[in-house]
Specification:
One of its GO terms (molecular function) is ATP binding. The protein is an alpha/beta fold and 691 residues long. The chain contains 25 helices and twelve strands.
């Protein structure tokens, strides 16, 4: 994958048209200098990251590309629209869109697309410098366009400022006219209201009504005091006859009358001693006393009437003044309401006048400062015509292709590893089955028949099977089981070869072994041993023949073979009967070991029946032949038949496909060593290799 990616990258690199890079460096300041600071209409920029990113995006915008296209008349240059890269897709698309349509707008749009794809904006870290890089097949045109980009950006920035000032001036003109009309209207409303209500503005002074109300309140206080005083005097003399009241005692007339009466009373008493009351002089004195009493009573009554009149006069004045106060209070409240309305109208006039004056001042400042602002964009280094192409770079392309191929290769490997759930390693078998691995049979890479390979004691396969047979001898507490069933999850995993290898190994060790082909559906042992299959196990299970007539001799004297015989239509029914147990019982009397080559577990009940009848069972797993789910399903069926599983045997094991660790362990040859004498052709007793 890496090599393919590198080759494709090199071919792509050779097919690409050389491009020349022209670079122009500009400086973006925070804001331009202001001759009249208050006349600016653009927002003050602080040089923040947002401001700089905005400028970068403006440089990469379509509007900027179209501005450069129009400024340099690129839409009139036919060579500018030629394809820039050679590729199958580019040739196909270029054939249908080789030249833009004849309209100027479409040519400008197409040229702008080319510019946007070829220009790169690269800020210089830690500064306000920005590099504008442009790629083009023509070095002179690359220089012109790069410089044109910088000039267009500077001009665009100035145009934005002038446009902002022009817009501000137009806006201010319109607003000033509107405010002028509003100011005139508000002033007229204020004047009309003042004339209608008869209001005269006095600066920070109280109105006449307010002063009158204050004076009336003061006078009312005095009148109330006077009325209270007069009322008290009147109440004292209103309901009493005493003449010793202060009001009477202090009266001169009353005092004179009292003196006269007292003198007359004294005279009357003095003469009463000499004259009788009827005496004329006495009568005259008595009449004078009565006249004085009459005058006194009249004077007291006059005093009482004067006090009452004073009280009533004070009360009337108080009531009248209170009425006047209510009138003045209503007048003041009405005046205050009118004053509030007047002040509202007055403030509106002042507000409109202030706005009008402010906008008028702003308009004058904008008019003066509109054209004197300095630009904040500077061209630091102009582009020069490049002498060497910058793209394509073969080394960079190969590095990218190498990395891409490496990533794709690793990704595909991981994906295949995730999707492929086949069992290949002994650890996987042990994890799924929970059984020990009794042996690992390597994959035979030779072209010879497996039976021939097994007969060669120096072969990897034969040595692995000997190791497996040795493990069988220590698989139980009593040693090697008397009967062993060999089965697997599916067909073609090496169970028949394993059965033959077990039988041959123990026959060579001197044990009498009976090998039975118990696969009554697809028998194969008679083919491997080149023997007859006309009679066999099926004949015994049906009761037509007995074992001595069914056993065949093989090429080894200690190994006997019973073929499957004719294939019955009901294999599971035959194996479920008692005759399979009687066969094992009879065979155990003659043979030391009986090996059954049973059918696969999945889809059939034969393997469970044979394994249940046998003393032990070996489960064969072909590396790469079974998926984990199928293996789990097959192993779950065995305990239900009360099968004694000794362990598993992993066949067709390929150490290279599993990993480095297994490759280290299985790269050594199995079998016998050849010493130097054997290499020279001499024959000596072979020695078992240590493993």
């Amino acid at each position: 994958m890496i090599l393919t990616s590198c080759v494709l990258g090199a071919i792509h690199n050779l097919l690409k048209t050389p491009h020349y890079a022209a670079n122009v460096r500009i400086q973006i300041e925070r804001e331009g200098a202001k001759i009249v600071e208050s006349g600016t209409t653009s927002p003050t920029e602080t040089g923040s990251a947002d401001f700089l990113r905005t400028q970068y995006e403006l440089l990469k915008s379509r509007a900027m590309a179209e501005r450069v296209t129009s400024a340099l008349y690129l839409y009139k240059d036919d060579s500018f629209f030629k394809p820039r890269d050679v590729s199958a897709l580019g040739l196909i698309t270029g054939y249908f869109s080789r030249m833009p349509t004849s309209s100027q707008a479409s040519k400008v749009a197409t040229a702008a697309d080319i510019l946007m794809n070829a220009v790169t904006i690269k800020p210089v870290p830690g500064s306000r410098l920005v590099d504008i890089r442009y790629l083009d097949p023509n070095p002179q045109r690359a220089q012109i366009i790069a410089n044109g980009y910088a000039d267009a950006y500077v001009a665009s920035n100035l145009n934005r400022r002038f446009e902002a000032n022009a817009y501000a001036k137009t806006f201010l003109d319109e607003r000033i006219k509107q405010l002028q009309i509003r100011l005139q209207e508000s002033e007229q409303v204020l004047i009309d209201f003042a004339e209608k209500e008869g209001m005269v503005e006095v600066n920070d002074k109280a109105s006449i009504a307010e002063n009158s109300l204050a004076a009336a309140n003061t006078a009312t206080g005095h009148l109330i005091s006077e009325r209270i005083k007069n009322e008290q005097l009147w109440r004292q003399v209103e309901s009493t006859t005493a003449i010793n009241l202060p009001q009477l005692l202090t009266n001169q007339v009353v005092d004179t009358l009292r003196g006269q009466r007292k003198a007359l009373e004294t005279e009357y008493q003095e003469k009463l001693e000499n004259f009788k009351p009827s005496y004329p002089e006495m009568v005259q004195i008595s009449n004078k006393i009565k006249e004085v009493d009459r005058q006194f009573t009249a004077e007291v009554k006059a005093i009482r009437n004067s006090l009452k009149a004073a009280y009533q006069s004070s009360l009337a004045q108080e009531v009248e003044m209170k009425g006047r106060i209510e009138e003045l209070r209503a007048e003041v409240i009405d005046l205050q309401k009118k004053g509030i309305r007047y002040n509202i109208l007055k403030r509106e006039v002042e507000t409109n006048r202030n706005l009008y004056n402010s906008l008028l001042q702003r308009l004058k400042e904008v008019d003066i400062a509109g054209g004197v602002g300095a630009n904040n964009i500077f061209i630091v280094d102009r582009a020069v015509a490049p002498n060497f192409p910058s793209e394509p770079s073969l080394s960079r392309t190969l590095i990218l292709a190498f990395g891409f191929g490496l990533i794709i290769g690793i990704g595909l490997s991981l994906l295949l590893e995730m999707l492929d759930d086949r069992v290949r390693a002994p650890e996987e078998v042990e994890e799924i089955s929970g059984l020990p691995t009794l042996g690992i049979i390597p994959r035979d890479e030779s072209d010879m028949e497996l039976s021939v390979v097994l007969k060669d004691p120096r072969s990897h396969v034969a040595e692995a099977y000997r190791s497996f047979a040795t493990a069988l001898q220590f698989s139980t507490d009593t040693g090697l089981p008397r009967s062993i069933a060999v089965t697997s999850a599916g067909a073609g995993e090496g169970k028949s070869t394993t059965a033959v290898a077990i039988a041959r190994h123990f026959a060579q060790m001197g044990l009498k072994v009976l090998l039975i082909d118990a696969d009554l559906r697809r028998p194969s042992l008679h083919i491997k041993l080149n023997l007859d299959n006309s009679i066999g196990l099926s004949n015994y299970l049906t009761g037509s023949l007995m074992p001595p007539d069914l056993v065949q001799r093989t090429d080894h004297p200690n190994l006997a073979f019973m073929a499957s015989g004719p294939l019955p239509p009901n294999a599971a029914d035959l194996l479920s009967g008692p005759r399979i147990y009687s066969l094992i019982s009879l065979g155990s009397d003659v043979f030391n070991l009986i090996v059954f080559d049973s059918p696969p577990v999945l889809g059939l009940a034969d393997a469970q029946l044979l394994s249940s009848a046998s003393a032990a069972t070996v489960f064969v797993v072909g590396a790469g032949d079974n998926r984990k789910g199928a293996l789990r399903a097959a192993l779950r069926r065995m305990p239900m038949a009360r099968v004694t599983l000794l362990g598993t045997l992993l066949t067709k094991f390929d150490s290279k496909s599993v990993g480095y660790a297994y490759g280290q362990g299985y790269d050594y040859k199995y079998g016998y060593h050849m010493n130097d004498d054997e290499a020279d052709g001499s024959t000596q007793t072979p020695q078992l290799a240590r493993y």
